[in-house]
Fold:
Amino acid sequence: MPMRWDYAEANALGGSTGSILNCTKYVASTLEKWGGRIPAEINSRAAQSICEEDCFVICTDPPYYDNIGYAVLSDFFYIWLRKMLVQIWPELFRRLAVPKDDELVATPYRHGGKDGAEKYFMDGMQVALSAMRKASRSNSPLTIFYAFKQTEISQEGVTSAGWATFLQAVLNAGLYVDGTWPVRTEHTSKMISQGGANLLASSIVLVCRKRNAAAEVITRADFIRALKREMPNAIDDIRKAGVGPVDMQQSIIGPGMGVFSRYAKVLEDDDTAMPVKTALSLINRVWEEIENELDTNFDAETQVALAWFATYGFDARASGELITLANAKNIASSALFESGVFKDLRGKTALTPRAELPIHWTPKVDKIVTVWECVQHTARVLNAEDGGGAAAGRLVAEMGSRAPEARALAYRLFEIATQKGWTAEALVYNELAQEWPKLEELASKADVRASTNVAQAELF
Structure:
């Protein structure tokens, strides 16, 4: 039973967060505020055996493919609990060990290898989800919580066997994905504890509904056209809702799979049905194309800075490298120095580090305002001892029409930093993007105050 712990267990008898006393207080305080008066009924049975129709609002947290061997792990506790409680709950502890044959996880050594384990998981999950689809109310979504690991992201996007197999089972059960939303379930300290390897960023809520029995069949080309047509607005809505960059990979699955799963089939060029894994890859590719198109809307200085950052980060390189990039964007390298985006190191050059940016910079007084500067200064001010949210909000207010572009750039810089493995830099942009809705709110209040002050001044 291989295990790896990245935290220390709390002393159950102590006074820390994980102690029995504190946990009891947390539960009690929740129950005190609970307004429900309808008695609950609890039954334990296999999800595959649900036979009622159109009766339930279903919210489920299914097994995570091969991430956790629940039954084996339970044995660690079961054998000791059995010694103490078998006389109290004889039915529950009638076995010597936890039953494992019917456990719905993809365990290769139990199912004849990797392929057999994947088939077992797919078939079993499809039966369970089909039963849930039948039992769920037609006018209510079926919500499925699914753990997502950063390590499940490849260059082609979220295409891991676990995710692809699970989503395929969802579709095969006659459901379509109406949305995917991240729920922040992990502390940021956990994200940093593994050297920034965000092992579990979020729990993902799949919002599913019953697919129309008369759903049509489309081609691969039709699917790609639909993605390009619908995803830009969906991505913008996700960002406006405050979803941070670290959760974008999961969140964009929602609108993409929404397109894919509302059809009965998407046919490949050879008339075979497109599998989910291929659909996920195409969704990611279209998303990347959308992001690249956004890059071309930035000012020339920002485009050069973005290209430099993607290759060298904040490292210094020969000036000739900058000249080549500047020529490609039709801008003089001298203009890049004048803007303050780059610094001239006499034969070498580099992006100006945030620590060296002028402290009193504002978009109002800068003669050459770039989106790059807007992002870097806001990130600097947000975490400065003499700054914070209010100061960063004032900068956003002064950006005017550049504010949406600055927000988009923060997401783009996070993606690049993550791909390069620059953990500290990625966390900077993730925090900035997540705080952006609050900064816009502060900016709006600052605009109202400024307008009020102007009106009062005119009265006098």
Q: What stands out?
A: Residues 41 and 364 are 62 Å apart (CA to CA). Residues 47-68+105-293 form one domain. The first strand starts at residue 59 and ends at 60.
